[in-house]
Structure to design on (342 residues):
């Protein structure tokens, strides 16, 4: 599945769309997707892959849009200690750190 | 991710060449580390380079810190990209027809081997890589490595035994063989006569698959895939 994500990201880019790639770089506790899990998002809102069990993808898309705009990478943390926990925290009680970068 | 990096990364993966993408989480700069080369935005100290390559060999993505660089340490993320795991199936039988798509879904590149012309056909195995040479020749040609699982499904000693002789002396991480306890006992006797050691024989998972009471070909395929997954993910399992 990992293969498809990068190829899809490159494919979207080749079509002239803006694309951001999100990668799980660290996890603590019972996070649903392991380190290295990826998801790609384009500026039309298409997405492929996942970085959790669906708990935080919405928030990642939000950050990905900012990265598509300014080209700057972002590190975002999700989990019980996050103040956004109630809205986008992981129901399982785990924590994940996600790196979001633009695909040039 | 810069275009040059993306293109090289996709090219390496297409060629089946292992590569790690190393990202400096502070600057966003990236470098590709191959088994024998390095290319990209920054260099790596020898010990750090070795750590990245060790992660590549173990297929383990994760954070590494370059503490020598400065006091706070530079945080690097290593994303490993290895060729897909492989499943080599001996016997283009009914169970193989269920196992091939299930294994593909699980992330394995599947090859089905059967020298019997009417079995390994494109219409029975759409999109699956097929080999019609004798199993031992096919397995030798396919160079089994430690990211390869081998399953024999023919029940026929003429086909299964030569395959097992090759598989048991290879670095395959999983070797499974279809057949009842009785069939397997006879198989062990035959292989022993051919000089296979007890330690080598103990590597065979048989009767094949996790014991989930599987009856249909699809259920048996599921039990086999579950067992392969357990062996890969849980040290000492099944």
């Amino acid at each position: 599945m990992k293969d498809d994500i990068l190829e899809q990201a490159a494919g979207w880019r080749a079509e002239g769309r803006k694309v951001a790639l999100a990668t799980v770089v660290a996890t603590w506790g019972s996070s649903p997707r392991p380190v290295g899990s990826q998801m790609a998002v384009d500026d039309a809102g298409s997405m492929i892959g996942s970085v959790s069990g669906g708990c935080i993808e919405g928030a990642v898309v939000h950050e990905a849009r900012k990265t598509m705009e300014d080209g700057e990478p972002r590190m975002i943390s999700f989990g019980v200690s996050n103040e956004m926990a109630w809205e986008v925290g992981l129901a399982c009680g785990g924590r994940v750190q996600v790196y979001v970068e633009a695909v040039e | 991710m810069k275009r040059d990096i993306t293109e090289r990364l996709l090219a390496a993966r297409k060629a089946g060449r292992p590569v790690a993408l190393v990202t400096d989480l502070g600057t966003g700069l990236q470098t590709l580390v191959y088994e024998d080369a390095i290319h990209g935005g920054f260099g790596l100290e020898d010990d750090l380079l070795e750590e990245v390559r060790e992660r590549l060999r173990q297929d383990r993505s994760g954070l590494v810190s370059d503490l020598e660089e400065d006091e706070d340490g530079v945080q690097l993320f290593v994303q490993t990209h290895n060729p897909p795991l492989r499943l080599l199936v001996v016997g283009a039988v009914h169970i193989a027809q269920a196992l091939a798509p299930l294994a593909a879904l699980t992330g394995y590149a599947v090859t089905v081997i059967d020298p019997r012309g009417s079995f390994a056909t494109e219409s029975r195995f759409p999109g699956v890589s097929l080999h019609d040479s004798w199993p031992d020749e096919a397995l030798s040609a396919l160079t089994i490595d430690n990211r390869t699982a081998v399953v024999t499904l023919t029940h026929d000693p003429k086909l299964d035994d030569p395959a097992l002789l090759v598989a048991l002396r290879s670095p395959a991480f999983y070797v499974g063989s279809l057949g009842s306890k009785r069939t397997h006992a006879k198989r062990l006797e035959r292989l022993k006569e051919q000089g296979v050691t007890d330690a080598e024989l103990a590597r065979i998972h048989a009767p094949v698959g996790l014991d989930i009471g599987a009856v249909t070909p699809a259920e048996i395929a599921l039990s086999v895939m579950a067992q392969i997954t357990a062996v890969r993910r849980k040290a000492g399992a099944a």
